[in-house]
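FAQ: What does the model actually see?

It sees only this:
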Amino acid sequence: MRIGIDLGGTKIEGIALDGSTEIARIRVDTPRGDYTATLDAIATVVANLEERMPDPGSPIPTSIGIGIPGTMSSTTGLVKNANSTWLIGRPLPADLEARLQRPVRIANDANCFAISEATDGAAAGASVVFGVILGTGVGGGVVIDRRVIDGANGIAGEWGHNPLPWPATDELPGADCYCGNHGCIETFLSGPGMSADHERHGGDRLAPPQIEARASAGEALAERTLARYEERLARALATIINMLDPDVIVLGGGMSNMERLYTKVPELWPRYVFAASARATEPVRTALLRAQHGAASGVRGAAWLW
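And it is asked to produce this:
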């Protein structure tokens, strides 16, 4: 049995898996800003999941993997680069192991998403997979032959905190990002980034699903917002193809629910991908796919860390 925990900025979700079969799932609100309460909430979710297992009295402890919106410093053992800022600088693995009385494995939530989709999801069987989360933030994870690549600094796949490539004049210098830089891909391609872009160009302050609905209804302003988003996503993913050359790019997060991305973006990225732009007849063979497990991919991937 495996337990996976997805520690998000607004919710904590837990899942129990027997092989690839889901046994139980629980979701609770994240105690935002409160580190101790977050530890308590995770411990409660684990206990409740174990109570729902077929043999809750088994003396063999279940494995526990946890996905977080940040990463662990290999030097200090503390959380870094987390947009859930109350986790930063905290010894999360040590504190959780003390609470749960067993080892835990912790990985970036985008890495968990990527390993889930590469193991038994949309990219199952692919050798090189780049998993993308487009939500309140923008993250990424690299999986090669079903192994997550962490990197020397634990930040492999963090494409959201690179600058938007090939920027237009009106995209410079870009909005400030929580990471301390400005013009990051995340500030353009996150859900809040799309909403802010729509407002900057004369629209109301709307959530992305509202913008998409208005575009579908024929509103020109909303259509232009989606077109800018798609073109920026094509540019940003083209840099991933140029560097990593993945077999599959899988999209997850709330923004991935826009069906038109899967046709529009591959139509746009050849002008930026080296193999295609250098030889007009050369196709881009990378597939752009929607996550098979949807919102459950992150928590399933956390379970697959063992």
